[in-house]
């Protein structure tokens, strides 16, 4: 089961292992996600989801999971 949270900008984020991803694209029912630390840390971790399951995961995170306060 995938876990989602709402960002401070009211966008949906995917949470995997404590890391946050933002949606970059959608194609034929598949959603593509990029690590939220891509801009700040040049983190190249990405994943794709389909029907509520992760079907692809690429690269490792180059940082520790962020500490989010809600």
Automatic annotation (TrEMBL):
<keyword id="KW-0479">Metal-binding</keyword>
<dbReference type="InterPro" id="IPR007588">
    <property type="entry name" value="Znf_FLYWCH"/>
</dbReference>
<dbReference type="Pfam" id="PF04500">
    <property type="entry name" value="FLYWCH"/>
</dbReference>
<dbReference type="GO" id="GO:0008270">
    <property type="term" value="F:zinc ion binding"/>
</dbReference>
<feature type="domain" description="FLYWCH-type">
    <location>
        <begin position="4"/>
        <end position="63"/>
    </location>
</feature>
<protein>
    <recommendedName>
        <fullName>FLYWCH-type domain-containing protein</fullName>
    </recommendedName>
</protein>
<keyword id="KW-0862">Zinc</keyword>
<keyword id="KW-0863">Zinc-finger</keyword>
């Amino acid at each position: 089961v995938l876990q989602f949270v709402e960002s401070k900008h009211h966008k949906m984020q995917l949470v995997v292992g404590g890391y946050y991803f933002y949606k970059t694209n959608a194609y034929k029912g598949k959603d593509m996600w990029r690590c939220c630390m891509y801009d700040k840390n040049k983190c190249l971790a990405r994943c794709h989801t389909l029907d509520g399951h992760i079907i692809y995961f690429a690269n490792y995170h180059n940082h520790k999971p962020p500490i989010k306060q809600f």
